[in-house]
Amino acid sequence: MSESASSKRLLEIEALRVLSCLGVLLIHACAIFWWRTPAANRGLYFFATANEIGRFALFGFVFIAGFLLTLRQSRAFEFRSFLQRRFSSIFIPYLTWNFLYFLFQLRTNKITPEQLENPTVWLNWFLFGCSPHLYFVALLFQLYLLYAVAHKPLQWLLEKPARMLWGIAALLALYPIWIGYRFLPDKFPHLLPPLLFWLARNSTRTAPEWFVPFFLGLFVGKYRALFEKWVHGYRPLLWGLLFISLALASAMTVQATPDSPGVIFTYRWPNGLLLPLFRLSYAFAFTALLLPTATHGLQRLKSTFWVEAMTKFATASFGIYLIHPLVLLALGRLRTTGRLYTFSPPLYLVTITLALALLSWLCIWAVDTAGNRWKPATWISRLLLGH
User: Fold this and answer.
1) CA angle 175, 181, 184 (to 5 degrees)
2) In this structure, are residues 192 and 184 in contact, taking their beta carbons and an 8 Å threshold?
3) What is the helix (H) or strand (E) element at residue 55, kind and residue range?
4) Does residue 282 belong to any structural domain of this protein?
5) Cβ-count burial of 243 within 10 angstroms (0-12 exposed, 13-18 middle, 19+ buried)?
6) Per-residue b/e over 296-329, b at no fewer than 16 CB within 10 Å?
7) Which helix (H) or strand (E) is 34 found in, with range?
8) Total structural domains within the chain
9) Pairwise CA distance, residues 255 & 269, whole Å
């Protein structure tokens, strides 16, 4: 480990957090013009590949959550205090932003009267958010809740590396079955009871979808030296897995006809089964290769400016994730973005992603600074950012 595990921030984890945040921004930047790109345009395939490159992001965030849980556990686990901290730092901001996005969508007529009268829609809004990106914040709270409830069995698994590895192997074996479960509502609409039907429809937004990166993070946080030794021995294999998985996922992402734009058919058979497996393989290889590389690279970095900048961006990554759709919406309405896209799709994508990152960070910095310097604004910072 590069620093004291319990007291100092690990720069390699900060690097993964920064790259994961940029990966999310990259995916959503691709979405602005995804539907406007004709199927015959090569730009469609460029955006498909860029979209898949950023797909390690959510895997990275979940991995970090599990990693830090075992890395920083230096005293007896306290169920109540653990959940209180997560409730104030994650669930309270989730509820706050969920309400704000609800008001925004209501104001912009994105919510229909029929939706307001449907109890199931209200339940989905509460559990997964009014804005598509909020489901991931609720998902993190689900994983933390699972960790708290199943803490003793998880500690038993973590006592020996072989136990945890067998557990992860079992999750990998069950993952295709979980993916196939999504197809049951379409293939057999009358087979499932209402609760299981609803769960199948929302399977990608629930904890089982992300068990593999979470459990892997728990394992690496406890047995990092063993994991890095394994990565060093299989580095060529991991590089091959990364590029092959990325190429196959990019090829499967683009499904189009000559007269229609490209569409991501995540739930279409067999793409619906294979695409998540390729994305999981790519994200695992990316994360496994990044950790030791970032560790050695950051240790050699002499400039404290870039280290401090990276740390500040990583600290604000949670807030950036929450606010960036509003910033992206504002950027998407600028006429200059359309001209830039026509001139050069790669230049457009880089510019939009970096502008989105900078403007979102400035918004979070303003809220955080106001909360630190102006006491009446402290509660606003707590509601929006959890601190």
Assistant:
1) 160
2) yes
3) none
4) yes
5) exposed
6) eebeeeeeeeeeeebbebbbbbbbbbbbbbbbbe
7) helix 11-34
8) 1
9) 12
Name the pTM for this structure: 0.89
Q: What DSSP string describes 102-145?
A: HHHHHHTT-S-HHHHT-HHHHHHHHHH-SSGGGHHHHHHHHHHH
pLDDT digits (tens, 9 = 90+) for 173-231: 988 888 877 776 666 667 767 777 777 777 888 888 899 999 999 999 999 999 999 99
Tokens representing 334 are: 């600028």
Which stretches within 223-344 are classed as H helix?
Answer: 224-233, 235-253, 271-300, 304-315, 317-332, 335-343
Domain span including residue 248: 11-385
The pLDDT tens digits of the residues spanning 113-134 come to 888 888 888 988 999 999 989 9
The number of residues making up the chain comes to 387
- In a domain, residue 155? The reply is yes
Residue 356 CA, chain-centre distance (Å), reads: 17
Cα 245 to chain centroid distance, Å, stands at 18
- Residue 213 in domain: yes
4 falls within a domain: no
CA distance 79 to 342: 54
Angstrom distance (rounded) from CA 371 to CA 18: 23
The CB-based long-range contact list for 169-178 (8 Å cut-off, 24+ gap) reads: 171/211, 171/212, 171/215, 172/212, 175/211, 175/212, 175/276, 175/277, 175/280, 176/273, 176/277, 178/203, 178/208, 178/209
